[in-house]
């Protein structure tokens, strides 16, 4: 099966824009109900954890409902780590298939997220790679899973879905 990389790239760019605009309701709709959202931790200099149920992850959600709950906490202002919310700019590049024939489509992209914290007036960036599984059964690609491989895991502040 051949996939259309331009429509998948557009979906990745759209997801990044929605995060930067804090349009989380629309962002959430890009995910399938049983979508997995995972930012694994590093075991050592070279290896990531491979079992999110038994090893430490930076973020691990196993369905869209868990992501919705996180958004709800932020919007209710019960999450003191997100007060005030940082401003972000996601920059995406190098979007390509990891396996062109796989369905759902397995796609990788590189990212840099610039983060400005208005509370401290400090900025930093997160960078690494995304690995997406995109379902192509509907009108537009939907995210079946997103794995965030954070290359600079010496994190000066909290990370959350909006800053990765």
UniProtKB/TrEMBL annotation:
It comes from the Bacteria. The keyword Oxidoreductase applies. Keywords: Oxidoreductase. Belongs to the bacterial ring-hydroxylating dioxygenase beta subunit family. PANTHER family: BLR3401 PROTEIN (PTHR41534). This is Benzoate/toluate 1,2-dioxygenase beta subunit. It comes from Tardiphaga alba. The lineage of its organism: Bacteria, Pseudomonadati, Pseudomonadota, Alphaproteobacteria, Hyphomicrobiales.
